[in-house]
Amino acid sequence: MGKKLFAAIIWTIAIAVLSLMPSSSVPSISWGSGLALDKIVHILIYAIYTILLGRYLKEVKLIKWNDYAVAVVFSILFGSLMEVMQYYLSPSRFFDILDIIANIIGSLLGLIILKIKF
Questions:
Q1: 56 belongs to a structural domain
Q2: Does residue 13 belong to any structural domain of this protein?
Q3: Mind listing the pLDDT tens digit for each residue in 11-50?
Q4: Which of 1, 4, 25, 107 gets the most CB atoms within 10 Å of its CB?
Q5: CA pair distance 50, 69, nearest whole angstrom
Q6: Predicted confidence band at 91 (pLDDT cuts at 50, 70, 90)?
Q7: Structural domain contains residue 110
Q8: pLDDT (tens digit, 9 = 90+) per residue, 48-84?
Q9: What is the 3-state secondary structure (H, E, C) of 103-118?
Q10: Residue 32 Ramachandran class (φ > 0 left, ψ -120 to 50 alpha, else beta)
Q11: How many separate domains does the chain show?
Q12: Which of 62, 70, 75, 69 is nearest to 104 (CA)?
């Protein structure tokens, strides 16, 4: 298994675990507005996720479409799925449309970084 695939898989698992664990188990960091920090974390997590997926897809060339676009779409869909699963599977977590918006912003930021840097 290549390093890029391994990194993408580990990041996927980490997102799923953090998204679905009870809110009392998620590390809490205090800085300014808790809401703002939460959204910044979502943006960063999904920007990194998109970068990892995009770099892996570009390397293996399994997809005939634009590799980076596929990475963005998958990242957005996965982030949205995690929000829905929080609603149905985690009694201490809830569905938040603002989290989905932050995930989308992060995915698009990841795309910008991919286009500029890679």
A1: yes
A2: no
A3: 999 999 999 988 766 666 555 555 678 899 999 999 999 9
A4: 107
A5: 9
A6: confident
A7: yes
A8: 999 999 999 998 877 667 889 999 999 999 999 999 9
A9: HHHHHHHHHHHHHHHC
A10: left
A11: 1
A12: 75
In this structure, the number of other CB atoms found within 10 A of the CB of residue 71 comes to: 26
Does residue 16 lie in a domain region?
no
- The tokens for 98 are 């603002």
The number of beta carbons lying within 10 Å of the beta carbon of residue 102 is 21
Contact 68, 54 (CB under 8 A): yes
Amino acid at the residue 39: K
Which structure tokens are listed for 49?
A: 């996720």
DSSP state of 93: -
- Distance (Å, whole) CA 23 – CA 107: 23
CA dist., res. 94 & res. 88, Å (int): 8
d(CA 25, CA 17): 11
Range of the domain at 75: 3-8+32-117
Q: Model's pTM, two decimal places?
A: 0.88
The neighbour count for residue 15, using CB atoms within 10 Å, is 19
